[in-house]
Amino acid sequence: MNMFDVLRAPQMSEKTLSLKEEANQFAFGVDPRANKIQIKESIEKSFKVSVLKVRTMNVRGKKKRLGRYQGRKSSWKKALVTLKEGDTIEYFEGA
Predict the structure, then answer these.
(1) Could you give the CA distance from residue 51 to residue 49 in angstroms, rounded to a whole number?
(2) Which residues are 74's β-sheet partners?
(3) How many beta carbons lie within 10 A of that of residue 29, not counting itself?
(4) What is 50-84 written as a DSSP string?
(5) Smallest Cα–Cα separation from 86: which of 43, 44, 49?
(6) Using one digit for the tens of pLDDT, what is the confidence trace for 9-59?
(7) The domain 3-86: what is its CATH number?
(8) How far is residue 84's CA from residue 32's CA, in Å, rounded to a whole number?
(9) Which among 8, 4, 45, 46 is positioned nearest to 27, based on CA atoms?
């Protein structure tokens, strides 16, 4: 798996922004087939930071309905990455 295939998108919410301030953690949506080692290497190479810990979780897709039609959103994988003290990711600085 290529380094650029692992990371999908950064996750921005009130909870992830508070994690950034309190524990220097950042959240990303990642490829469901990626493991923790691949996620760590991808973030270190992409953003030039030192990763201490990676936590992953599989997020189930929510049920949605539109009128009488019912469906389900896609499930996805989320990674919480803890960075070394003093390191930061510039993408999140404007938030």
Answers:
(1) 6
(2) none
(3) 15
(4) -EEEEEEEEEPPPEEEETTEEEEPPPEEEEEEEEP
(5) 49
(6) 999 999 999 999 999 999 999 999 999 999 999 999 999 999 999 999 999
(7) 3.30.70.330
(8) 25
(9) 8
Q: Which of 47, 74, 94 is nearest to 28 (CA)?
A: 47
Single-letter code of the amino acid located at 55: R
Tokens of 40: 């760590």
Query: Are 24 and 87 in contact, with CB atoms under 8 Å apart?
Result: yes
Residues 6+ apart with CB under 8 A from 22: none
Distance CA 46, CA 66 (A): 39
Whether the pTM exceeds 0.90: the reply is: no
